[in-house]
Design brief:
Structural class: alpha+beta
CATH topology: OB fold (Dihydrolipoamide Acetyltransferase, E2P)
Number of helices: 4
Strand order of the largest sheet: 8-1-2-11-10-9
Pfam families: CheW
GO cellular component, one term: cytosol
Helix content: 10-25%
CATH superfamily: CheA-289, Domain 4
Number of domains: 1
Distance between the termini: 24 Å
InterPro entries: CheW (IPR039315), CheW-like_dom_sf (IPR036061), CheW-lke_dom (IPR002545)
Protein name: Chemotaxis protein CheW
Amino acid sequence: MENENFETVNVAVQADNDEMKGKYLTFWTDGQLFGVPITDVVQIVGMQEITQIPEYPYYAKGIINLRGAIVPLIDVRLRLGKPEAEYNDRTCIIVANVHDIYFGFIVDEVEEVTDISDDQISPPPKLNSDTVNQYLTGVAHKGDKLVLTINTAKILGEDEFDALIQDAQ
């Protein structure tokens, strides 16, 4: 995948959407296992030099230049309210397509691509009678593990998404 450009990869993924239904990329953040639909994932890259951007939200670490594409980075730990941790050799960036814009999500460690059927996913727990976590889409039972499934498009609020897009352009 290293030599392919994003558009080529994205077209290939969209062509395989039916085949990819029910497949999730799972990753660890602060000891919790999360999953995102594989159809949202463009590629996984190792950590690299990050250019910080003034006045970005605290969880937006900056941008990277990935083969000529400017990709804003979100530290998933910080976005989910977890404590900051030093990056290591297991830390990586999941590049995802969010509304036809590429974002990098910094995670502690990628686990695997796995099949999770709809009947393995329970609705997310309600925080109170009116509120449900805005980006948590469900809790999947995968063997003896629980996988918190998240919506990559909603991990950023609408205002934050617009602000990050303007800064990255």
